[in-house]
Structures are given as C-alpha cells and as structure tokens.
Write a structure and sequence with these properties.
397 residues, alpha/beta, Rossmann fold, Dihydrodipicolinate Reductase, domain 2, seven-stranded parallel β-sheet, seven-stranded mixed β-sheet, 33% helix, globular, NAD(P)-bd_dom_sf, saccharopine dehydrogenase activity, Sacchrp_dh_NADP-bd, oxidoreductase, Saccharopine dehydrogenase, NADP-dependent
C-alpha cells in the first residue's frame, strides 16, 4: 500500500516513523510546505520508503494535482485543523481514503459524496479525540444502564520537569493550537443540566475539578469542547445525568492561564506596539515557545481516562479505562506524538487492510474495532488498564 502524509510537524513525524516500520506499507510520500526541512528529517532518520514533495495546502488545485500524481491508497492529514475540509474534499474527488486526528466539523457535508465515491473519511483518529473515544465505548459496553460518562486527556511534562516554569507546561503540540483550544467554548452535562461555557471561560474555577491519576498524583480538569454532541455518537439517552470531556493540567496551570485570558492575552485582534501590529496570542506564542521547550532528556506524559458509571445487573458500577504513555527518548518522539501520530497511522492501515470496510464519514467511537486498536497500540508499547468498582460509585468524579 502507498500512503501520502500531509504535514511533517511533530505529529506527522510520528506517522512517518510508524509507517516506515509497517510491513503493510511499501511506499510513503511526505508532503510539506518546507520540503527541504522534511527531506533533512528523512535523511537523518535513514528512512527507506519515504520520499518528499512540496505542499501548498492553500490551493485546492494543488491538492488535487498532488493526489492524482502520487496516486496513494490513503492520505493522512497532519496539517492544522482549518485545512482538513479542503484536503478531505480533494480526497473524495480523487477517490482516496482520508484519515486525520482533527475534529469532524464540516466533514459531515462530505458523507454522501464519500459514500458515492467509495471513500472512507476517518477524522478524530488521534489521541483526544481518538483513543479516548474507543476507551469510552469500552467503558459504556460494561454497563446495562449509563448514568454518566467523563473522558479526560492530558499532554503534560512528567513530574521531574513539570516545575521548570510557572505554567508547569511544556510544548508537545503546536503552542498556537493549544492557545486557540484554550479559547474554545464548551458544553457538558452536570446533574442532568446542560452547562454552556462561553469562549475564553473554560478555566473558571466553577467548571473544573480534580482527578487522581495513579502514580502521578492530582491533576486539574477543565472542560474540553462539546461533550454533549457525543451523546448521539454513543447512543446515550435521557437517563444520562452527566456527560463531560475534560483536559488535564498540573495544579496551578489553570489559574494562571485564566488570568492571562481575563487580561486579553489569548485574543487574536492585533494591538499597536511601537508602530507594529501584534496579536496578543501571537506574542505569547513567540515569547513563550523557547521558554516552554523540552530538553532532549526530558519527557512528556500523556494521560487518557474514560470513566462511565451506572448500573450492571441492577447494581451500581463505575468502569475506568486508563492509558498512560511517556516520551520515547530513543526515538525522541513525545508521548503526544506517539498517541496522535501512531493512532492516525493505524487508522489508515486498518482501512487499507480491510479491517474497516465502511465508506463515508466514520468515527472511531463507532467504526474502529476496540480490540484491534488496543492490540495495535500494545504492539507500539502502549497498554490500557481497566478498573471496575462495584459499589459506592456515586458520581464519575
């Protein structure tokens, strides 16, 4: 099989690493706007299957020409989310399967066209969303009646290097993307009531809580996007009293970022600084990135938790699925790179080896076989642990 990878950034590098090691994949084409840097990376890694081409993701014509000239069996899009629809649309036109780690968003508009073209579109195939959705499915399948579902995702520095700056955070994902996510509104259910969190308010204390992570201690949770939208994905009904998707950070991070948000540092609108037009958010990106960079011997840790509670055989039960992964210092790949990039690579291979045969717009929560994904993650050094509490489950927190 032949796979085209768009974007050779932090997560794209992990996709290439995984595909290079796959016996199923015979050829990989990596496309990036900075082809020279991508070629340098390929040379340094000694990759044998991968070639590099220039990418202009802003041009629909370029994308279609690229897909037609490369003629891949699948394209894995590791570009910023706003490019996703344009790439998926070109993939449908050219009859190429599409995988990405970004949210579904406008891709719903391509479902029928993809079906007609015999194309599979598999977004949300990363860490969060991605692995977390499959873990949620597993937890829900353990219950006869669901009263609540919470999922958590974190990409943070491990404790040994978490205190090296006041934010207790270091960059394993594009920092611009992180700050944009901090501004997103959110929606969740609590005690049967829908809670809407306005843009830029996710770090308000009343929306957060703490979570105890085995072997790591206490982390703080804040709402992460629209959890209520996933109720239909999982087929959940009115008996559900709580539904939440949360991200985790070390204590102190949320309060500090909330202060920055309240002071306008996450805003996009430029301000005049000595005759120069500067966005406050872009200032933070450029000023903080060198101060929040991991050293070569420092590791990040990814934490994923899916926790469902309700009734099993008439008795209260709470089921938790955990995945905790650390940076691989041998390859240099962060846990964030591994959980996002490897998962996307697995998704493409599951489509091409016919493990996934449905066409149109899919979602990991419904369409990725959990046992197969967990087996593939285990082969890549990631293991999932399950915890079942039969009594006194109370709330999901």
């Amino acid at each position: 099989m032949k796979i085209l990878v768009l974007g050779v950034g932090l997560q794209g590098k992990a996709v290439l690493h995984d595909l290079e090691r796959s016996e199923q994949v015979r050829e990989i084409v990596a496309a990036d706007m900075n082809a020279e840097a991508a070629e340098d990376h390929i040379r340094r890694k000694g990759y044998r299957k991968t070639s590099v081409v220039h990418l202009d993701a802003t041009s629909t014509e370029h994308l279609e020409r690229l897909l037609r000239s490369v003629r891949p069996h699948a394209v894995i899009c590791m570009l910023p989310p706003h490019f996703g629809f344009k790439v998926a649309e070109a993939a449908v036109v050219c009859g190429v399967h599409f995988v990405s780690s970004s949210y579904t968003g406008d891709l719903v508009r391509l479902d029928q066209a993809a079906r007609s073209a015999g194309v599979t579109l598999l977004p949300e195939m990363g860490m969060d969303p991605g692995i977390d959705l499959v873990l949620c499915r597993l937890a829900l399948e353990e219950l006869d009646q669901v009263h609540g579902l919470h999922s958590y995702g974190a990409g943070v520095p491990e404790p040994a290097c978490a205190d090296h700056n006041p934010l207790r955070y270091k960059i394993s994902w594009t920092f611009d993307g992180v700050l944009k996510a901090y501004k997103r509104p959110a929606r969740f259910l609590a005690d049967g009531r829908e809670v809407r969190v306005a843009e830029g308010k996710v770090f308000w204390p009343e929306y957060g809580h703490t979570v105890e992570v085995p072997g790591l201690g206490t982390l703080e949770a804040y709402p992460n996007g629209d959890a209520v939208a996933y109720m239909d994905t999982f087929g959940l009904g009115r008996e559900v009293r709580a539904m939440g998707r949360f991200a985790l950070r070390w204590p102190g991070h949320n309060a500090l970022v909330n202060a920055l948000s309240e002071l306008g540092f996450l805003e996009d609108a430029p301000v005049d600084v000595g005759g120069c037009s500067v966005s406050p958010r872009q200032f933070l990106v450029h000023h903080l990135t060198p101060r929040l960079t991991f050293a070569d011997d420092e590791r990040d840790v990814v934490i994923l938790l899916a926790r469902a509670w309700g009734l099993k055989d008439g008795e209260p039960r709470r089921v938790s699925y955990w995945l905790i992964d650390y940076r691989d210092l041998e390859t240099g790949l962060f846990a964030m790179n591994r959980t996002v990039g490897y998962t996307a690579a697995i998704g493409a291979q599951l489509i091409l080896n016919c493990t996934i045969t449905r066409r149109g717009l899919l979602n990991p929560a419904r369409d990725v076989p959990p046992d197969v994904l967990l087996s593939e993650l285990k082969r890549r050094g990631m293991t999932v642990q399950k915890e079942v509490e039969d009594h006194g489950a109370g709330t999901g927190i």
